[in-house]
Amino acid sequence: MMKLVVGISGASGAIYGVRTVEVLSRLGVEVHLVVSENARKTISYETDYVFEDVCKMATKVYDNKDLGAAISSGSFQVNGMIVAPCSIKTLAGIANSFNSELLTRAADVQLKERRKLVLLVRETPLHQGHIQHMLTVTQMGGIILPPVPSFYHLPKTLDDIVNQSVQKALDQFAIEANLFERWNGM
User: Fold this and answer.
1) How many secondary structure helices (H) and strands (E) does the chain include?
2) What pTM was computed for the model?
3) Binding residue per annotation — 49?
4) Helix, strand, coil % over all residues of the chain, rounded to 5
5) Which residue range or ranges hold the Flavoprotein domain (predicted)?
């Protein structure tokens, strides 16, 4: 059975994390969820969900302050982790192995164990420090996947745009959820 850690940080774009959990749950993937304090607020501010709604979709939910949680150890076997959205604060923590919270520790574990770590970095414009952190994470084996919309699938709604980015993240784990129509040429 596929097991993934999903982290939701406080960046704008909470719907990316919520939709990721929703889709993975529907597909029967075991979801281990960790949500930052700011993300809890952002979820209710930006979406029609509240934190408890998202928790109900996950297999297991961890407190971000619990550095002794199962997902803080490489011996806890998972297939990888998606952080959606990934704030610059979280990106910086991961890039510098600053593991003061469970979300960054769980991401660090994925890198040290050579498992996939996919970060939907949400910030624009970017300065050199942001880009340097993205380069550092990439050099450590992480995948930077900003939720940049494409338009070849002719999105009609905001959900269409969100779904395309979520599917791109799931593609990194070979999980097909049929969330958008793929490019087949003109």
Assistant:
1) 7, 6
2) 0.98
3) no
4) 40, 15, 40
5) 2-172
**Phi, psi (5° rounding) for residue 62?**
-115, 145
Q: Is 19 annotated as a binding residue?
A: no
Q: Which two tokens stand for residue 39?
A: 């993300």
Would you state the structure tokens that stand for residue 44, as one six-digit string?
A: 């209710």
Ligand-binding annotation for 89, yes or no, is: yes
Question: According to the annotation, is 168 in a ligand binding site?
Answer: yes
| Residue 33, number of CB atoms within 10 A of its CB | 23
Q: Is 8 annotated as a binding residue?
A: no
Q: 131 labelled as ligand-binding?
A: no
Q: Is 87 annotated as a binding residue?
A: yes
What is the residue whose two structure tokens read 């070849």?
A: 152
Residue type, 5: V
* pLDDT score at 19: 98
Check the annotation: does 75 bind a ligand. Answer: no
Taking the CB of residue 160, how many other CB atoms lie within 10 A of it? 16
Answer whether the bond into residue 85 is a cis peptide, omega within 30°. Answer: yes
92 is an annotated ligand-binding site residue: no
Q: What is the DSSP letter of 178?
A: -
Q: Which tokens is 170 given? A: 């799931």
pLDDT digits (tens, 9 = 90+) for 116-151: 999 999 999 999 999 999 999 999 999 999 999 999
